[in-house]
Amino acid sequence: MLLGSGRASGQIIYFNNTAGNIFTFNVETCTATQISTGPAFNDMAVGENGLVYGLFGQTVYEINPATGTSTTLVTIPGALASGLEYGIDGQLYMLFKDVWKINPANGTWQFVGSLPAGWSVMGDLVYFDGNYYASCNTPAGPRLCIINLNNPGASTIVDDLPPGNVIGGASVDHPSCPKMYWFSTTQSNQPSVLYEYEINTQTWTPICPGFSFSVGGADTPNDYSFQYTCACTTDAGNVNAQTFNLCGTSATVTVPYTGGAVLDNDDILRYVLFTDPNDPEGSILLQSPGPELAFDPASMQTGVTYYIGTVAGNGLNGNVDLSDPCLDFADTPATVIWRLLPTVSFSTSNSAICPGDCQIVTLNFSGSPPFSLDLNTPTGNAIITSTDPVTLLNVCPGPNAAPGPFLLEAISLSDAFCVCD
From CA 51, how far away is CA 96, in angstroms rounded? Predict the structure, then answer.
């Protein structure tokens, strides 16, 4: 199997055992496949052009895993090293208590500097997101450290280590749940335990039980990325699944949020209005940092059901990034409908009336029936109820009324949802 230059596919880590054999290890299936043999070495690094580099004591080897051939790249007299990494700058770095930099093209090397007093590297150096991590022995005990390759004396401690000798590591770059994988052995030449280290939460989890190899070193190419799905913790919380009928387009609705959101470091929560409960992210009309939402005549219509809730995910220009793989919406949205205020108009064939006569007046309602009209008539107050948008009213002023125009005056009108005074 050739090691690609820079990236590879699948959930694969490369490791060597203490006898010098090189394996690929599939994290998903917990299976190892031997791809090459080589001289005994205690750490390895994956470089460009399909090459692997192995370290033993003072010597670095160049290994072609496709053919199994190995050649000595350089021996540094007096050096004692346990860790090796192919740097993002295309140079090799080997270290124990000191750090050396090696040009893989010609084997030339230079001494970089020493780690802080009392520090030593157990057995590996792992590049991740601009930093180089190592399992270190320190005066405070075994620790996961960041090694400063420009100034090794300024290296820092990150976290505790799991039990055993953590000697082989590999990195996994993922935007939501970056991880590193480290092999740990409790005794020399005994089976190792593979630990998954979640960088954001700083948690160690043993995986692949029964792993039967004694690992001497491990690596993945720089910027290597597994194809896997994060265990998402983002939660947009909940809203009360109630229905709002709002009277007039100037009315606003407040999202009935009940809480319960779970946000990671780069998440934000927004209140949203959308049109399709089966596809909320594809039908969002607006996002808001506050729970009060208003009618937008440019994109909305009266009498239409809209859905309101919350969404959580990575922030992007003040809104939630809808491409976030951990995007989450409130499970059951509320609904809102903006209703037009009801209206009534009067029409008649003759606006004048003779004493003792009656006149038919047509009442034209708009809105959602049933309608209730509080009406002032020539004979006093009347309440007209109707389910018909067009209703006929017989007006009879009485025998003592003066001839001529008559007056009808609407005092209050309501429909199924709204009241208009």
Answer: 23
- Residue 378 DSSP SS3: coil
Which pTM was predicted? 0.56
CATH architecture entry for 12-219: 6 Propeller (2.120)
SS3 content of the chain, % helix, strand, coil (to 5): 0, 55, 45
Domain ranges of the chain: 12-219, 235-339, 343-420
Please tell me what DSSP assigns to residue 282: T
Which tens digits make up the pLDDT trace of 109-161? 999 999 999 999 987 788 877 888 888 999 999 999 999 999 999 999 999 98
- Closest by CA to 239, choosing from 336, 335, 333, 337, is 333
Tens-place pLDDT, residues 52-68: 888 888 899 888 777 77
Fold of 235-339: Immunoglobulin-like (2.60.40)
User: What CATH number has the domain spanning 343-420?
Assistant: 2.60.40
Q: Are 100 and 108 in contact (CB under 8 A)?
A: no
Cα Dmax for the chain:
128
Cα–Cα distance measured from residue 367 to residue 388, given in angstroms and rounded to the nearest whole number: 11
